[in-house]
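USER:
Try writing one entry.

ASSISTANT:
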Amino acid sequence: MQPNATESFDLPMVDESSRLRVNWNGFSQDGSYFCVHYSSSKPDGSTSSYIACRDLGKKKWLDRLDAGPIETSPRYGPPAGILSAGMLLGHANETSVALNSISAAKSVHTLALKRQNTESKVLYTSFWPNEKRKEFARLLYISGAGELQVDYCKLGSHAAELIKTKSYELPKASSLALSPDHVFLAWSASGRGGQRQSRSITLINLTNGENVQLTTPKPSNDISTICFSSDMRYVACGCEDGAMVIWNLITKKEEAMVVGATKTISSIAFTPECDMMAYGSYDDRGRPNIWLYSIKAKRIESKWSDNPHGVGSLTFDASGSRLAVSSDKTSNVYLVGKPRN
């Protein structure tokens, strides 16, 4: 049964000729605001990115913020994140981190942060949702060197301070994710020449460098997205062939494999209680592209078609009762019930 959509709204348009793509969406901690980071591609090939914040109580968009050019691929993770008890939103590009006030819809300040290697490309930025610490980590892939650099940074009043840097050898990855506690890096290798291979991800313990391989024998195309649960009990991956796999991080064994989608899995989200998860795909033409899955019962609770062009990003609010789904131009907020026992 499809959940009820409590609100539906179009993203603020850049211009009619632009093609929009959602890279990340999220609720503020108190659930009052909904934020979207999206890119705009123009016919001349130029690309820009924007942050739009919506006041869910007043049901209106606040002023859109220009986030500048973006090279981060959405499959590598969010280029933005909620900070400071949900009232500050940070986003990063190749050289800086900007802090923005959600309620005032304006930039608070931009913090310069130089890359140590001018050829490195920022793939992923993960923010700590902690008002006092205001820490974040960013992952940089060193072009042509097969090296991944992890920068641990702290946001100061006038600059972003680089606390420490670690480097790891890393072949070309199809997807990667940093655990919520910043202890584990999960990554999957790209296939070669379109060949199907075993679904597997590698967990790197960033504190001691140990590697753990999580594998399921059934062949698949590249892994398209990876997501950790907030309690660090599970890690899930979505594949380009539409399969979704959940591993138990305690036992290091496969918890479940869910099939149903026919196209690439674009986004995965766990509820805060980690008893249920949602995932979306690029299935189109009326086919289901949103699935709600009960981890405890190991079954699909509901599925439906959110957008005829597929789903770009999805997220739960802090209560786990609302699911926000964003596509190319539209965002829908669904009221999600608890899974059946």
In short: The two ends are 16 Å apart (CA to CA).
